[in-house]
What does this fold into?
Amino acid sequence: MLNFSREKYLKVTGGAIGLREEIEKVADKVFEKGFKNIFLIGSGGAVATFYPFEYMINSTSTIPAYAEIAAELVLQNNKQLTEESLVILSSLSGTTEETVAAAKYCKQLGATTIGLTGEYNQPLADTVDYPLVNFAENDFASDSNQLVLYQLIFKLMNKNGDFPRYEEFAAQLEILPEKLIEAKEKFEPKAENFAVTYKDEPYHMVVGSGTTWGRAYSYAMCVLEEMQWIKTKSIHAAEFFHGTLEIVEEDTSMLLLKGQDDTRPLMERVERFAEKYTKKLTVIDTAEYELAGISEEFRKYLSPIVTSTLLQRLSVHLEDKRNHNLEIRRYYRTVAY
Amino acid sequence: MLNFSREKYLKVTGGAIGLREEIEKVADKVFEKGFKNIFLIGSGGAVATFYPFEYMINSTSTIPAYAEIAAELVLQNNKQLTEESLVILSSLSGTTEETVAAAKYCKQLGATTIGLTGEYNQPLADTVDYPLVNFAENDFASDSNQLVLYQLIFKLMNKNGDFPRYEEFAAQLEILPEKLIEAKEKFEPKAENFAVTYKDEPYHMVVGSGTTWGRAYSYAMCVLEEMQWIKTKSIHAAEFFHGTLEIVEEDTSMLLLKGQDDTRPLMERVERFAEKYTKKLTVIDTAEYELAGISEEFRKYLSPIVTSTLLQRLSVHLEDKRNHNLEIRRYYRTVAY
It folds into this structure.
């Protein structure tokens, strides 16, 4: 695969899986202390990674979960955030200003804080009660983060009596990175073809629902806009029919992220519409990837990581065919604002 | 003002204000029965109108609030939605399929349901426990809905001990429609100028935060996309700096909806950025409108309705200058899908 190091990918994802013992100890401790709700806090791609977990907690567990934008949370005076909250924050570099400020804010309120990050000795790890650190380069950070979250969140739900099959789930996560590489390999020709076909496309509509909505939101914002400077609209499949559909013409590029959770019918409806009204339809469907050894009933939870792992391949090919390096920024950490 | 009937506007908003006694009776009844959280459910513009109220409840009250997309909610199996939930749904026509389905779903779960709608003898009013009906044409529906919600939600918060000044607030709502007309009048030249300047603009970025985020989301989707077939990106002010900023060039149209809640600094940051990097910046700032007789401390709650009332004027002028009727649809209720 183009610009892909199997070794590096397995090292990063293996690092995340390798945290299991530490993660479960943290889960035991925070559960013993007790909490009445979970806040998932980040900025940009980090908060977007939390959206599927907010969805999964709310549909699996009786513990209320709230994914919140760091910079807004510190201003809102959210009354649900108290010393009885469990707060999980995420920043790869550990230096994202707003997220570090949110961590300090939550600590001041007396909440219990866990920080997911790639770096020790940086502000996030130094601020939170429980840092969970796994080094990850930018391109694999999302998969790494998700693997940590699958262990942490599902262990917490297990302890709460909401997810009895945690042991089996966690054991299957160990083989998941190899299966995700197989999925990437299967997707590779499609990724290349997308990049060749759409390299000059000025606008993409990216659609998701349920556990893929956060992935649609972040792929549009953090990759197409931020890393490729292409205009996008990310839109939830259910909301698509209440406005955004009207701008679809036969040359409108639509990228559909179809997962396997209970909201799949919402994506199927958009797909049927798109098949009729645009010639530029791309569907990424997690159901097309085998993931041998993963139980059928866990696939709905894994839709976001399967989606994000495939989308990484799209990014690599867009970078290549568009001759636009994924690391270039006009403004972010380049100019002051 | 172009295509504006003062009489009609006062009739519709007066109808909403006139529901006060009925609304408060409903609030008394549901409060007496008791509930542990509030779900605010709609589709498209209706759910977007709820977003500011979700934000305001969570920053003012200890009652947890969740704004949810109707079509997703009925599939998600959200564990927070129980017979102890108070559910508020909204559909102007009373026929929005997904919203009616959600009302039935919530009733089956045993939740208490309130329906905001413009029509009696339609499915929404016929399904919910408490219909609150105020006839409103499409262009004034959002203001009507918000006036009903200010009375209902703030009365509920008052009864919960979170908002002691409800009587004063409700009394001021009575003079608000006149003040909103004055605001529209002041905004009129700016609205016309926007439409003249940007009538051929193919793309707008619409930015909001806190209580204006829902307005940014819906103006982009329900007016610019649905009613004018113009591409948009709606983006939260805090999230703007984590991706979307990279596509800003000197000819990128940015429409900023600046309110007066605690997240105003987030909008100011985007404004400072936009002033530097684009020549096409429009700021709608609720602070520029006097609203004589409205207490300073209530203005943060009223930012969404001030914003939406001004944006209606933008729509009327876009329709006129672009020669594109706001009622035309390519697909919605035109073709089957």
Remarks:
- The mean pLDDT of chain B is 97.
- Residues 60 and 162 of chain B are 6 Å apart (CA to CA).
